[in-house]
Design brief:
Blueprint (H helix, E strand, L loop, with lengths): L1 H4 L3 E6 L5 E4 L1 H7 L3 H4 L28 E6 L5 E12 L5 E10 L5 H8 L4 E5 L5 E4 L1 H7 L3 H4 L4 H4 L16 H11 L3 E7 L8 E11 L5 E10 L1 H19 L6 H10 L8 E6 L1 H4 L16 E10 L12 E5 L4 H8 L3 E4 L13 H5 L10 E2 L8 E11 L2 E11 L7 H38 L10 E8 L9 E8 L5 E8 L4 H19 L4 H18 L15 E8 L4 E7 L5 E3 L5 E2 L19 E4 L5 E5 L11 H11 L7 H12 L8 E8 L7 E6 L5 H15 L6 H18 L4 E7 L2 E8 L19 H8 L2 E7 L2 E9 L4
Parallel strand pairs: 14-15
Antiparallel strand pairs: 1-2, 1-5, 3-4, 4-5, 6-7, 6-10, 8-9, 9-10, 11-12, 11-17, 12-13, 14-16, 16-17, 18-27, 19-20, 20-21, 21-22, 22-25, 23-24, 23-26, 26-27, 28-29, 29-30, 30-32, 31-32
Helix pairs in contact: 9-14, 10-14, 14-15, 15-16, 17-18, 19-20, 20-21
Amino acid sequence: MAGKQDAPTAVAVVDPGGMVSGWSEGGRLLLGWTATEIVGRPVTDLLVEPPPPGFPEGYGTGPDPTGFLPLRHRDGSTVDAVLTAHPLLGPDGRPLGHVVTVQRWGRRPVIADRAFEQSPFALGVYDPELRFLWINASSGRVIAHSEEQVLGKKYRDLFPEFDRELFPERDDKPYTDALAEVARTGEATRLITVFRPLGSNYANAWATSIWPVRDAEGRVRAVANWGFDMSAEYWARQRLLILNKASGGIGRTLDVAGTAQELATTPVPGFADLVSVDLFDEVLRGEEPPSASAFTPGEPLALRRAAQHSAKEDTDRAPGPPMPVSHPPGSVAARCMATGRSTVELAAEPGQGGEWAFGPGLAADPAHWPPGNPLIDASIAADGLTGRITVPLRARGALLGVVTFSRLDRPEAFTADDLILAEELTAKAAVAIDNARRYSRERTTALTLQRTLLPQGLPNQEAVEVASRYLPGGTGAEVGGDWFDVIPLSGARVALVVGDVVGHGLHASASMGRLRTAVRTLADVDLPPDELLTHLDDLVLHLASDLQPTGQFEPTGESGATCLYTVYDPVSRRLTLASAGHPPPLIISADGTRTPVPAHPGPPLGIGGLPFEATELELPEGSLLALYTNGLVESRERDVDQRIAELQRVLNHSATSLEALCDTVMDAMLPERRTDDAALLLARTRALDPHHVADWDVEPDPAQVPRARKFAVDQVDDWGLEEAAFVTELVVSELVTNAIRYGEPPIRLRLIRDTSLICEVSDASNTAPHLRRARAFDEGGRGLLLVAQLTQGWGTRHTTNGKTIWCAQTLPPG
């Protein structure tokens, strides 16, 4: 039985003249020639090619016969064979010729042939010129050719399509090139080949191993390959790669339009050729999307094209502004948004592509498709589309818009698995878009709150010329708590304030508003900077204890806030400042030199128990002050000292416009993608004309009151303010009288002509007067009430040597 399963072996006897003198039955079985037909003929008649030198003497002799020759079958075909020649000797030792044994190359049992022939994997053998030597049935089904059709023919001639790749963007090597390279180098290789079988709308992916077949001397005699269809695994992996790309590429920014563009870009070109994202206008503005009741049946659906990306467009081109789009009633997009279900449209019924084509089962089997899919619509081919998937964009139960994935000029039809992938991409992007929308709404609310709490306009005062800028953090950053203020004080002085609340978001904006209100309230009391910060620190501690977070409430942000409070007096040209953890101001004198500030910032607000120190210095007229927050000078690339030095260089004292200088500083110091907000307050100091200030020491004697009134009236007349003389005489009389009666010497009267006429009376007592209503028979108590009625403002400020009572009259412009 075993002998019958073996392939036949031919035995021939060749005489010394090269004539066949003997022929076995195996020769007939192997080559088809009978003994009658071949005996007596030259052995070279069996050769397809000219005989090699020395044939048959010694051909294939040795311990490992490797004689390889193609032989001619009786039917004209070629049989690749291994020949072994042994000398035939007579009794006397004389050569009688040779005995030649012939075996088919690759001799194996018949059952082995059947195993290879019936293998479910595609098997093939090719000569070094890539001519077909053998293929099994599976390989024949894949290439749609029988073995008889391909034997002896070159691979490139039969299948030129394998000289190019179906997907050039993958940088794969064409399959035919891989075969040729193995034949040339003798190095085995493995690759995945993606191709589309004839008549199929789906691309197959094949895992292939190619190796050289060598003879006993190591020469490459053929190339063999083995392959199997791994399309399901391959395309599943490609979908996972796209989803992985989407995980890292969608939702990187908290920007609605930017996230929509990421969704449009991610699946191109691996999954689709054109992706468009249409959103409601409310979603783009950060508002709540419209409810279902807002849609009118029969009316077009108005959306905005938030993003679109095509494989044929320049990917470096910046996306334009969202354009309005309208989806007619009954359109696929309108139906998808109304029903909440996705729709797949194909330009034609998907071709089956043979048994080995990946996808037809998924495409044609209704069990794999959701109800109503796919729709066959030949009209989309007019737009160059072979398929389109429309998916409603939903997040947290709200409808945000619609996404379409289209394939252009490629025959691969969408499959049911492609629909799942499109829905996964859309669901991932929908959550990111909704997060961006919610963030945009909160950020807009915080910005609105913060801009409402910041000064809408800087107040009029003559002490300094001021300009300011505030810029929130970039789109990806929450609103911070930076703030500034300019507060007119008594005596023509002005307070310049800047602060920063630690943290971001609505709570930081609200905390900033509380601090700014508190500073303004304490400034009205006219406290020195160090005392004001002490009271502000106590207030922050009380607020922190009263507003401890409970439940879902966010923690307050005042703790850890910083503040710089400065007071400039244009009469004395002295600047007094104190800092609670905030960097000191930069001061540049009129000649351009930097004025050092020997101030040491105290602890941030909310620490408690630590003192704040005030620093006082005299400034030349025209000095430039720059108050700023950390967001202006902090950088990941450089330390703070380097950034402050850079700010110092940018500040050009000779700039004629502080507004333009503010713009220059912000442009130079802030990167495009900033992560924190920044505030800048610039002030150029002025000095009050000495002729606009008059003072007089008052003896603590009631008899000095008339002299004080005369001094005041004469000075007012000298300034040309005769219309203010009457009121000035009355308020000077009341204030000087109170100082003599209730205060302590020394007593001093001072008049200041600024935008208003200011009258100040100072004494060494710390007792503060109180405004009260005098009863009918009271002899006193009417003085301050009279002052309050006759002037536009009055108050008390405490100094290190006592107190000052002041009042101000508004002067007509002139």
